[in-house]
């Protein structure tokens, strides 16, 4: 039976962060309730329709946003239970994105009780001055309390999101953030380089702040890679690090070009070689309108681009199994030009980027593909 991923988008936030361009907004309790009712209905109907076309189950559920935790534990529990009844396997990895604000041990106990076994928590920085610029509501102490509450409730697979290249960040402040994460014993770190998105407050006010330049941001990235690996938290994707066995199984589906169903405004899907999505419009979704076609997917170039985000890289064996041919010789020849510079490794097992290569991955991909 085919194993897919299921993604649910929660478009609500208590307050939008200054750098955020995701589809989210503040909402009343009535709006939250109405949306959850609609989303539960969509889970049942969409999963039933999909299973009539092909036998499948979802072995990952990822509830993202926005800030899913602002729904409250009971609404999240109802969404998880609906997904379990519709399509989830018994051993599914179930992830809920949370922010520290408004979460306590009782909140996490309810999530643990319904089967949530992974939390992705927005930290961004453990330096409160940096957090204020980013528009984070909670402080470092609240973040620590939230992680400890989740662990006490029995959820130990916790990922903390941090950002690189943010205003005022330097090697010392990044060390403080890394040490904070390590001291809490979390097994997964996601580290994203800041991208100034047009239209966000941070983009409009960028001139007020001092940002690390490109060379410093690269140094910060390499510093973090070394720090985490020395503590057994190994890089498995450009921006993701985990102790063995604690990787995000759902996100691995994206990077391995596997199938997933996304429900909610701005959610994307990839099923049977077709991509489709819901517009960034929650009323469109509430009205029961269908997702919008987004063309074909899963071709070799797309597959290679996604695979090369992973530390395991583009596997010769997997390419043969999926496409019936080896990695093209033209791609191998281009790879040799960058191997001597230490940007990638090309051998009998495949092609994979080094840390140095990850720093210029967009340029490498453009050359290779």
How is this fold's topology laid out?
Elements: E1 2-10, H1 29-53, E2 56-65, H2 73-86, E3 88-98, H3 105-113, E4 118-124, H4 128-134, H5 140-152, E5 158-164, H6 171-184, E6 188-193, H7 201-204, H8 214-229, E7 234-237, E8 240-242, H9 249-255, E9 260-263, E10 268-271, E11 274-277, H10 282-286, E12 292-296, H11 300-307, E13 314-315, H12 316-323, H13 329-339, E14 344-347, E15 350-353, H14 355-359, H15 361-368
Parallel strand pairs: 1-2, 1-9, 2-3, 3-4, 4-5, 5-6
Antiparallel strand pairs: 6-8, 7-8, 10-11, 11-12, 13-15, 14-15
Helix pairs in contact: 1-2, 2-3, 3-5, 6-8
For this structure, what is the CATH homologous superfamily of the largest domain?
Answer: Aldolase class I
Strand content: 15-25%
Q: What CATH architecture label of the largest domain applies?
A: Alpha-Beta Barrel
- Shape descriptor reads globular
Main sheet: strand order: 7-8-6-5-4-3-2-1-9
Instruction: Say how many strands there are.
Output: 15
Please give the alpha-carbon distance between the first and last residues: 33 Å
Q: Round the mean pLDDT to the nearest integer and report it.
A: 94
Following the backbone from N to C, one meets helices and strands in this order, namely: EHEHEHEHHEHEHHEEHEEEHEHEHHEEHH
Instruction: Return the structural class.
Output: alpha/beta
Predict the CATH topology of the largest domain: TIM Barrel
The helix count comes to: 15
CATH class descriptor of the largest domain: Alpha Beta
Low-confidence stretches are none
How many discrete structural domains?
Answer: 2
Gyration radius, in Å: 21 Å
Percent range of helical residues: 40-55%
Largest sheet: 9 strands, mixed
